[in-house]
Amino acid sequence: MKRISASDHEPISKEFEDLMKEKMSQAPYPAFLGMVLEEVRKDYSRMRLRYRPELNQPAGVLHGGAVMSLIDTAVVNAILSGVEQMPDQLLSIDVHTHFLSMVREEDCIAEAEVRHRGRKIVFLNVEVRTASGKLVADGAVSYKVAYPR
């Protein structure tokens, strides 16, 4: 499988990207976990989960739930980057995660891209790497996009 890359996706306007970054910084759960939206392009986003020892499980490695939260959150901006109208809701339907390696005392970076965009359902792929580049997880996510009536 080809690595997810920002260079495979068209840029969006700086104003729209800045708006998405601002909105994400105000979202309570991602802020609580220490997530930061780093880049958004059409059908692509990159998000960082900053390392904090509070996110470790008892064995001293990053808890899988934190990685899954990063995966489930990183896809949101990839979805929004390609909509013509802002949806009322984005709802996770299915999140599959493959844990490939553990993370010890390092930031994680998720790159998400849209694989297929239907009228109401969007399918995405996600890769999570450590800041040093080690692939630690990948995922397949589907989201329901609900528009105003």
State the strand order across the main sheet: 1-2-4-5-6-3
Cα distance, first to last residue? 38 Å
Unreliably modeled segments: none
Mean of residue pLDDT values: 94
Structural class designation: alpha+beta
β-strand amount: 35-45%
Give a short account of the largest sheet.
6 strands, antiparallel
Shape: globular
Radius of gyration: 15 Å
Q: How many alpha or pi helices?
A: 3
Q: Can you count the beta strands? A: 6
Order of helices and strands: HHEEHEEEE
Helix content: 10-25%
Summarize the structure.
By secondary structure, the protein is of the alpha+beta class. It has three helices and six strands.
Structure description:
The protein is of the alpha+beta class. The protein is built from three helices and six strands. Strands 1-2-4-5-6-3 form a six-stranded antiparallel β-sheet. β5 (121-130) and β6 (135-146) form a beta hairpin. The radius of gyration is 15 Å and the shape is globular.
